[in-house]
Amino acid sequence: MTKSGVSPLVNPAALQRLTKKSNALFLDFDGPVCSVFAQFSPEIIAGNLRDVLRARGHRLPENLNNSSDPFDILRHSAKLGIVEANLIETELTACEIEAVSTAEPTVGTEKLMHAWTSRGGKLAIVSNNSRQAVQRYLERFDLVRYVGLIAARESSNPELLKPSSFLIKQALTRLNVSADTVIMVGDSVDDVLAAKQEQVEVIGYANKPGKDSILLKHGATAVVSSMATLTEYIHPVS
After folding, report:
1. C-alpha dist (Å) from residue 229 to 2, 15, 204
2. Whole-model pTM above 0.85?
3. Residues of the chain whose pLDDT is less than 50?
4. Distance between CA atoms of residues 221 and 34, nearest Å
5. CA 124 to CA 172: how far, in whole Å?
6. Which residues are bridge partners to 26 per DSSP?
7. Greatest pairwise CA separation for the chain in angstroms
8. In the chain, what are the domain boundaries?
9. Alpha carbon distance, N-terminus to C-terminus of the chain
10. Is residue 230 within 8 Å of 185, Cβ to Cβ?
């Protein structure tokens, strides 16, 4: 370990370079900001969404019957038509809003937000979760003051979600920042792929064993296992 939470796989110089050159920070929500489903199982949500479709007479593919990912059900619903897609998205949003009422904050992220914005940096949440759920969470922990933009799910169209770069592009445009001045922090391959499409460099958050090598393999510039690590590299702009 080179600093608290930094894996030997990470080049600390990359973290220093990124945090020094960047004036905008994009954070994925579920993982880097909080554990959305800490007390609210995604398996249960996926089951609820399946029940909605079955009640409307739809037979699901075998691979979806065992899926624990609610977004798998959302993507399938889009193939069934706009009515089904809207129903599933509405139900998923309701579940996410309920989940964030018990979501657990990721250690170190609030300090990171404070440090970043104190140095004059812009900050956005870029998430496949619903905008309403993200907003509720930020209000719950008084984090709205740090966040200049929420680029998150606002429709039932799964094609607009990561790994599509739509939300990244939306954040770049609305914050009026160029890709070469932005850091994206995400804990999934989809985060990395979406950001890389817009030439945004990615710091992977490896919150589970094995994620570090996977995120690096798919193009993350650096990987940390603690959000607090990033704060150690942030210094006031001279």
Report:
1. 10, 9, 12
2. yes
3. 1-6, 8-9, 237-238
4. 22
5. 9
6. 124, 184
7. 62
8. 12-34+105-232, 42-100
9. 29
10. yes
